[in-house]
Amino acid sequence: MPDHFRIRTFAASPPAFRLRDLARRIAIFGVAALSTLVSMQAQATADDRIALVVGNSDYRKVPKLINPANDAADMATSLGRLGYSVRHLADLDYNHFRQALIEFGNAAKTADKAVIFFAGHGVEMDGKNWLIPVDAEIKSEVDVYAEAINLETLIDISVMPKIIGLVVLDACRNDPFETTKAAAGRALSRSSKAATGPAVGTPGPPTPLAAGARGLAPVEVSDNVLVAFAAAAGTTASDGAGRNSPYSGSLLRHVETPQLEINYLFRIVHDEVRKETGTQEPAIYGTLPKGDIYLNGESAVATSDGGADAEQVAWEFVRSTNEIATLRRFAQQFPASAHTGEIDQRIAQLQAAEANAWTIVERQKSLAAYRAYLDLYPFGEHVEIARITLTSLEKSAKPGQTAGQIDMPGPPPAGYQLASAETTAGSSESIEKAWDILKESRDKSVVGRFAERYPSARQNRLPPGSDLALRPVNSTELMLRTAQDSDVNACFDGDAGACARSIKKYPDYVQLQFQLCRSKGNPRGCMINAVAEARRRGLLVSAYTRSEEEKVRNREYRRVVARVNQNVGNVVSGVVSNVVGNVVSNAVSTAVSNAASSAASRAASQAASAAAGRAASSAASSAASNAAGRSVSNAASSAASRAASAAASNAASRVTIPSDVRLKEDITALGRTGDGLQLYRYRYKGDATFYVGVMAQEVARQAPAAVSTGVDGFLRVDYGLLGLDFLTYREWMRRQLHSDID
């Protein structure tokens, strides 16, 4: 735990070391040795609890507030008495707020419980929730991106702790920029149908801020996270006439109550605030798993058998799959399971059915046969060769030719007992154990259904269509990762040149572009264009807010993502499948179709080599082998395969390959080249074959001359300039094996 989280109170910058602190430490030094064993035991058993408490009262551009300073000071004292390592900060401007979140986020990674309390101004604008630093000057909706702190940053940090992350906002007060209306002619408000800003990706004039700001937008969180609002979404909170606001006052009266479960704590606060104000109703967002959680007291961790629960949780999903690998992983993980016999029987059934189906395919070698096999056995042993052969047949088919129909037996239905589908809700431990078995499954329905039921931002397990899963970049992760970069820090201090340098290094960290506009005085159109471009790229997709504006924006982004995914197959096949189908199939088949076995071998070798030389990837190797295999003897197929492999490897090094990370999935880091380039194993979306290569976005930072943009908008890499071969994972493994032997 960083030392500064043991200190109670700070202003915007930490005060100097005080003499009375030194005297106190000297006074207690005499009993330190006596308490060592007790202290060590307490550290071993107590929760690792941290808190960040912020009170913003001294606003510079709007009237000051009184209560937030008191609310935060009193909350910091209460949490300190509960054993939390508290950092109490007052009157934070944007950059100090950012730095505090970075330090707290790093500490939260190893914490059991983490609490963030903010008192001050907060608003909803542009469909998102924002916390207002004391130096903010917001005149239009786009200004909030550079001037305010997004609530999602606090939620992202709160996902990290092991037991619970709690975000408490006493921040939905009335319009903080009311007094600027006369001078600016605009006011701060939440978006409305009359003032929603430009459409997604469409530049336009800044939306004026209409009067009547009303509260925050609801949020949706996952994992062990709770977000508490002083007032329900769309309503405002009272600042109060006493020392504390009604909400903070009630929370302070009960937060130290021993063994008061956290859900009941906020129920009591809700009822008290409602009774005191007559209208204000606090709200809580998030659902915690089973097991009581306390702010004052040890959490009651579920005591059920994690292993037994994990078996039940996993079995509910495993029992529905026809993928043999997933069934085997379950059996290996739970060898004593009552389902072991059922799984062995099911695997034998699937293997027999697939072998029968493949016999039909090899006998007919038709479009209909290969398509039927791929539809019925998408996880089968022969999927890769079936896909490549089907592509080749489709390209060589005559215009108007149809595949026809074929009667091919599919996998037999599972015969599991209905009782074996029973499952429990599962503890966090059992859910993660079950996920370890299921996450490698190629059966996307299994993975998707599990993510739907047990979504987790912490484990990168989210439903495919959710707003959380749509986020291509997590700005909070970028904030933490770049915290030590001097250019980034100088950028947030107002250095425009440092912002420009930082943007080149971290092009997806859009907050740098917003700060560049801010440091230049926000010249005409700067923020408007920056926000529009970030929206177009999907970098502003909301993870948590649920305002009507954000729902519309997310629906639009889903449509964009769907269109991109539809084009991915065309991008990849244009480089691999189309070339392979047209060039390899025609060249090889024509050259060898009527040749004798020995002559065909030589002809196939020459034709495949020439064809693969024009192909864009080493997929030509497999395609050439199968194309030749349909026309000549096994000897010809083998020769074509060897020649195509060598030629395709050379060809791939002379052309640019689509290497944009947006085209890829199932990405796994393998190691680095001698030049420091990271190599990955991955699949192109819609393609079952695994390849080994680089990511264009990374290469662009190290060797920009090797990266270009195709007409499709995706980045491509010239492997020749990098001195690398573009290979299938199978070929890469073969080379690794030979290298080890040599």
Notes on the protein architecture:
This is Putative caspase-like protein. GO terms for molecular function: cysteine-type endopeptidase activity. Residues 47-124 form the Caspase family p20 domain. Residues 396-427 are annotated as: Disordered. By secondary structure, the chain is an alpha/beta fold. Among the domains are: 3-16 and 46-285, Rossmann fold, CATH 3.40.50.1460; 576-652, no CATH class; 657-741, no CATH class. The protein has 30 helices and 16 strands. The chain has a 6-stranded mixed beta sheet, sandwiched between helices. A 4-stranded antiparallel beta sheet has the order 11-12-13-16. A hairpin with a 5-residue loop joins strand 11 (664-672) and strand 12. It is globular.
Summarize the structure.
The protein is of the alpha/beta class and 742 residues long. 48% of the residues lie in helices and 10% in strands.
Write the layout of secondary structure elements.
Blueprint: H1 19-29, H2 32-45, E1 49-55, H3 67-81, E2 85-90, H4 94-108, E3 113-119, E4 122-125, E5 128-131, H5 144-147, E6 149-150, H6 151-158, E7 164-170, H7 181-184, E8 225-229, H8 246-254, H9 262-277, E9 283-285, H10 306-318, H11 324-333, H12 340-364, H13 367-376, H14 383-396, H15 428-438, H16 444-453, H17 467-470, H18 475-481, H19 486-492, H20 496-505, H21 510-519, H22 526-536, H23 548-575, H24 577-592, H25 597-614, H26 619-631, H27 634-652, E10 656-658, E11 664-672, E12 678-684, E13 690-693, H28 696-702, E14 707-709, E15 715-718, H29 719-722, E16 727-728, H30 729-741
Parallel strand pairs: 1-2, 1-3, 3-7, 7-8
Antiparallel strand pairs: 4-5, 5-6, 8-9, 10-15, 11-12, 12-13, 13-16, 14-15
